[in-house]
Amino acid sequence: MLVSGRKEPFVPQALPLAELRQKIGVNAYTGSTSGLAPGYLQANLVILPADWANDFLLFCQRNPVACPLIGVTEPGCPFLNDIGADIDISRHAPEYHVFYNGQFDTSVADLSEHWRDDLVAFILGCSFSFEDALVQSGLTVRNIEQGHNVSMYDTQIACQPAGRFSGNLVVSMRPFTPQDAIRAIQITSRYPKAHGAPVHFGTPAAIGISDINTPNYGDAVDIFDGEVPVFWACGVTPQNVIRHSKPPICITHAPGKMLITNLLNNALSVL
Hints:
- A hairpin with a 2-residue loop joins strand 5 (96-100) and strand 6.
- It contains six helices and 13 strands.
- It is globular.
- The relative contact order is 0.24.
- By secondary structure, the protein is of the alpha+beta class.
- Strands 3, 4, 5, 6, 7, 12 and 13 form a seven-stranded antiparallel beta sheet that branches. The chain has a four-stranded antiparallel beta sheet with strand order 8-9-11-10.
- Residues 1-9 have low confidence and may be disordered.
């Protein structure tokens, strides 16, 4: 079907995971992964030189809510059997951000021109993984409902430093009525590998957010009368830390555009 001479847009929600991953791998889909591949664990990416890897591993261990560690690759290897032998970490995220000395340099659809033999990839859990559980419980996830990327904000909450890494927490936000917020807290606490329970709800200024309508990353969503913003630790935290800590090179996923693994969310849930 053609509209105004343009092709009908590709709708990834209609595709099974293998076909969606194939589309991502050939750069045919570069959008947000929120709401995609329900039931499968989505992951944040942090890719660093091997001589910075031990410091970042310690940072993850000291900050497990912000950086829930799923796996780590061998230097130079873009594959990790633990998340799926068919997943190429260098090309199966929809978009990557490349940083040099802590400064954002470029956004790319794959890492064919940036991969090096000394790079180590860290796979970290993502809150998109619990969104499916929220929806299955009858809750409305506003960013999915409105077809937006999730709203993400810098905060004044300091992470525990480790080696050369330090910086403040980034949070994602989803609005709920107070009754639904309590239910969301109960549900997400079962998913510690997807950031677990919220770190804050209510007044944004209490954690250093001056304007809830202007997220630092992602998209603004509607917050209706009677709703409160609920904030979860976010896997964009490492990008904030990278800007502060200035490794010579670092590659991450673009905010909201995750690596979708073969792991099932329920396999990593508790209770």
